[in-house]
Input
Amino acid sequence: MDYGAEKYIPRDSHELIRYVHTKTARHIKFAPDFFVADKRNRRRVYLLEYKCTQTPLYSRSRIARIQGQSGRPDLDWSEIGQMEAEACDNYMALAAMGIHVVVLNYCAYHRRLLVCDFIEKVKPLHRDHVTLPTTSGSRTPFINFDLSALRALEEFLVEAHEFEMKDIKAFCDAARTRLLRELPVKHHPNSPLYRE
Output
């Protein structure tokens, strides 16, 4: 079911709080996109946020800093996800109140493409502190986290909703194929992997 701000708050109203950084404004701007209610077990109710990342990190110094902060020297760019910091903070605050929040993350450069798990499994490894807009984008502060700490979508559906793997595998495979076709990896122009 639709739930988030994008569905219900008019654009001009959203603009009023775009650069307001209070907890209340953060909650309004970053309310999760949907809520899920499991028809087979009505106690399984949670908020669901969908995130998409197409552009991996490319700076070796940033990757090395994240490796050092995480204590994972083997952590490479293909395992590092990102999310808006205020969004993550809002979901963590909701979880701290006992509200279940699940993040479904499509990452075009990750080996599993679709990971899904409770927000508590998202462990921030690095946090940006950029707050001013620039000509190249909003420069929204973000956090980096270890994608391998989250379950694959199939694992989440089997373990959290008791689906049979045979009943969902084809659906998940089709979703990954379509997402990768429509939302491919986009390397940054400064990345050594960038191709025009």
